[in-house]
Amino acid sequence: MAKSATDRKREQRVRDKLRTKEKEALLLSRKIVTALYNNDDAALKRTMARTGIDEEQDLISRFIRGADRMTDQQLAEFIRLT
User: Fold this and answer.
1) For residue 2, what is the DSSP state?
2) Sign of the CA dihedral 32, 33, 37, 43?
3) pTM over 0.90, yes/no
4) Average pLDDT, stretch 25-49?
């Protein structure tokens, strides 16, 4: 018996989901779970609103990549280590 369009679509979604998980498994190095204090969460939300970035992960990734491109002095000044 031939599969209905609904059955084919359901199977396609399962295949796509597996591909997404496989792709994530290849790209993902690790997951970091972070508890945020109220003030830190508020600062994160304000920064997201100011930049127009809707996803926390996107903003955090941009911060990490931006910090990685800084010189040691720029990074120290940014996080006020000196």
Assistant:
1) P
2) positive
3) no
4) 92
Q: How far apart are CA 78 and CA 62, in angstroms?
A: 15
Compute the average pLDDT of residues 58-76: 96
Cα–Cα distance for residue pair 45/35, rounded to 1 Å: 15
Q: Which residue has the tokens 């955090």?
A: 60
Q: Which pair of structure tokens corresponds to residue 42?
A: 């508020």
Distance, in Å, from the CA atom of 46 to the CA atom of 48, rounded to the nearest integer, reads 5
Which residue's structure tokens are 């796509």? 16
How many structural domains are present in the chain? 1
Domain that holds residue 37: 5-79
The string of pLDDT tens digits covering residues 5-35 is: 998 999 889 888 888 888 888 788 888 899 9
